[in-house]
Amino acid sequence: MEFSSKLLENAVYEMSQLPGIGKRTALRLVLHLLKQPEAQTRLLSEALTNLRDEVNFCKSCNNISDTELCEICANPKRDKTLVCVVEDIRDVMAIENTSQYHGLYHVLGGKISPMEGIGPHDLNIVPLVNKVKEGSIKELIFALSSTMEGDTTNFYIFKQLEGLDVVTSTIARGISVGDELEYADEVTLGRSILNRVPFENSIKAD
Amino acid sequence: MEFSSKLLENAVYEMSQLPGIGKRTALRLVLHLLKQPEAQTRLLSEALTNLRDEVNFCKSCNNISDTELCEICANPKRDKTLVCVVEDIRDVMAIENTSQYHGLYHVLGGKISPMEGIGPHDLNIVPLVNKVKEGSIKELIFALSSTMEGDTTNFYIFKQLEGLDVVTSTIARGISVGDELEYADEVTLGRSILNRVPFENSIKAD
After folding, report:
1. Where does the record place the Toprim domain (chains A, B) (predicted)?
2. What's the pLDDT band for A179 if we cut at 50, 70, 90?
3. A5 vs B38: CB contact, 8 Å cut-off?
4. Domains identified in chain A, total number
5. B93 lies in the same domain as B38
């Protein structure tokens, strides 16, 4: 793409550094901002730099939080013996949305991925193991996505916990509620049969 | 969406004001920035505010340009008697890419669209008519998209030019090079037959 303006080219370049935003989309977004009042561009860039400069992670669970201890960790009603291990804040938000979970979280900040150069030491794993060593956690629930990276990460943490007195579990994989069996993939259907639950439980959950 | 941080919520909100960016995508983009070095966020927001604050439009064609007169208008090799009327800079870039056009452009900045509240006076039409009145332009090529808004805008400008000594044309609509006739829509195919060109011309164009 040949630009008639360096300023424009620079803005499009920086915008296209975002994941999933190509040069064309970046140009469309930047031209949109040019048509809007100047305030909108200022609000956007201030919101981004403010977040980047002042972002704080909960000192206990590593979730993004404006306070030293996040609302969930600070809530006396949450069950502090139960910790759900997730990849990032999106997973926390998704699980919170269900209103089915009343324990705490531990945000790893990613998954072990040799392909992307992310090793165990780039993740928030040591503090998790230390928390377990302190002895107040009864159960860890692994809720990483069931990809190779997720399984590797689960397994790595599982090995680190060897000899420690903690129950580990993973969230159930199975057919989505409302899905037709015939369209489900075999691995999921297979797991949902292997890990079948007592019928009474399925009634309670709703 | 319930956010654990006001800073995060604010950044996601501002990002989701961009066209085609929903809350989920905005969150993904913002979390990506958080994982990158701080410099990337600063570069992005500076590029956007710099462009918004310092953007300049060519005083002749209204294209985005860092100089008072854009490179195309300032180029002595371009044919100044030929002006192509386009909607925005993307159209200029697309036509420049073909290397088939050696005239100037006139960027309207949009199309007449009552639905979006854009009237003729929100567009850069008066300067175009004035340029034509000065008498140095021999031909205006309308290259707006062939939508209702594009046709309305073409027609509005055409009416403004009544009585002035200028040839007007529109870019040819027809079957794309390489396309199969059977898949073409009827309007396009119909126009491509009505506006057929001498066979020799089609050889010259390649």
Report:
1. 81-176
2. confident
3. no
4. 2
5. no
Neighbours of B150 (CB within 10 A): 18
On chain A, the residues whose CB falls within 8 A of the CB of B47 are 7, 10-11, 13-15
Nearby residues of B185 by Cβ (< 8 Å), 6 or more positions away: none
Whether B122 and B159 map to the same domain: the answer is yes
* Nearest-by-CA chain B residue for A54: B7
CA dist A117 and A5 (Å) reads 36
- Tens-digit pLDDT profile for residues B63-107: 999 999 999 999 999 999 999 999 999 999 999 988 889 999 999
Contact A48 B45 (CB under 8 A): yes
Q: Minimal Cα–Cα distance from B102 to chain A, Å?
A: 16
Residue of B nearest to A55 (CA): B7
Instruction: Looking at the structure, tell me whether residues B17 and B79 fall in a common domain.
Output: no
A63 occurs within a structural domain:
no
Contact B88 A14 (CB under 8 A): no
Residue A87 belongs to a domain? yes
> B130 burial class (0-12, 13-18, 19+ CB within 10 angstroms)?
exposed
Confidence of residue B204 (pLDDT cuts 50, 70, 90): low
Partners of residue B169 on adjacent β-strands: B141
Residue type, B159: K
> Count of A–B CB contacts within 8 Å?
180
Q: How far apart are CA B188 and CA B35, in angstroms?
A: 48
* A27, A29, A35, A40 alpha-carbon torsion, rounded to 10°: -140
B59 interfacial to chain A (CB closer than 8 Å): no
Section A59-74 average pLDDT: 94
What pLDDT sits at residue B201? 74
Judge whether B176 lies within some domain: no
Chain A residues in contact with B72 by the CB 8 A cut-off are 4
Q: Which domain holds residue A80?
A: 71-205
ipTM confidence score: 0.85
Whether B148 and B91 share a structural domain: yes
Mean pLDDT of A21-32: 95
